[in-house]
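Known limitations

Files may contain more than one protein. Parsers should not assume a single record per file. Below, a two-record file is shown to illustrate correct handling: read the sequence, read the token line, then continue until end of file.
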Amino acid sequence: MTHHQGDRLAFDRAMVTQPVWNGFDLAREVTGIADNVLLHAGPPFPGPGAITRPIMNSACVAAVYEGLAPSLDAAERMISSAEILLKPAQDVNVVAPLAAVVSGSMPLHAVYDAWRGQHRMFAPINGGNRPSLRLGLKSVAVLDHIRWLNTRCLDVLQGGLAEGIALVPLAVAGLKGGDDCHGRTPVAGAALVHELVDRSPNGVGDDETLEFLKGSPSIFLNLWMAATKLMMSRAEGVPSSGFVTAAGGNGRDVGIQVSAFPGRWYTVPATPPEGAFDVDLPPSRALGAIGDSAVVDAFGLGAMAKVRTDPPTSAKSDHGMSVGEHPYFRGTGLKLGISAMAVAESGLAPQVSLGILDCEGEMGRLGGGLYQMPVKPFRQAAEDVLARQQSSSD
């Protein structure tokens, strides 16, 4: 499939990027959000009554963490009455996994472009295998874990960061070791922890935190989401391009943004991912697609990186949606960047590797699966890009 000239330009901008994690910043300082604003994955909700239960649960925890409400139940009343507001994280350069919610005083990983200065993207610390905010549970255990993550765990991460850690080499090492950079990240995660330990001047003295990091195979994912979003964001603003620059779901709707129209969400109702449950519950308990981790697959990795068994260390992209090869990923056989124009022409949309959450917010993660993104939002975006091109040439 021949890609449009605008897509090539957007792709080239995205690929000339070197994402480096070099510190932490408080959410309010880098986003400018008001004290009563919380950030969630995917496109915006039309109003408080549309907030999906897992995101509502996480928002209640975040509100209590932030000191906006004295209790989880009081927080829900304040959110329902719009005293506390929810807004899309990606609209302010933050990515949130699954049902996670970010509040103003939360420390966020800062990932910047080492080649072109201080353009940055942000992500919360991954909750690992403990009661995590991303699971959408309204509980004191989640609140306690967030407090621990953002203090003791934060101290260890900061202590091992040194001058910064380039993230693409870790992703490439992960791919060569069998990761897909989304649903599977244990190889990159182990490499990240090894770097942190090596860079800690006096070693890591906090055994509990070190055990947590080593036992959290997804510890790399939030950082890689921010790195991917950073690269995609560099492609924004090409008037003739349908290069995908945002992707995510909030459990109610799923959507994308494209280069030509920064900040404009193209959405459709979110259906659940297809996958087996790890618990004995009916299929009706599955929440619609949720999470900003869809940026990884919309970049061409995750479910879009089909791993071959022979040879075991290579991967390939066998679809026509991707724009081109990234210089860092040479030797992996992967093509990266998704074009809405190509999706509209082929009728094939990306698949996304996603966790399946309980729509009632009681059981957290029910399992993992694949979400087939609908063609419709890509087609709508492509039509708008083509209409703009037509009007400018008239």
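...continuing to the second record:
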Amino acid sequence: MTDRLHALIGGRVQGVGFRYFVSRSVAGLDEPVHGWVRNLTDGRVEILAEGPRHALENLLIVAREGTGASKVNRVEEEWGKVTGEFGDFSIRPTAKNPGAAS
């Protein structure tokens, strides 16, 4: 079963390599996950990813743990239907609004 995960990660998650950590974590999953990660101007990190449910759940576990330099204090998750719009997983530039196309 393939799902879509939209997650907003709060805490000390910017300026500590968190996006690169997420990207490396996705590359290390047993199943392919496609989508992106980016910073938001409000200090959170946003993840939008599609893949097998168990792989996305593993990604959430890793995101909740964070890096040694980060401190995750909040994770908001929303599950949705797959769109198939992503061909890989990338790090995107900072955006103002969660879920915006840019």
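Parsers that stop after the first record will miss the second one. For reference, the second record is described as follows. The longest strand covers residues 2-12.
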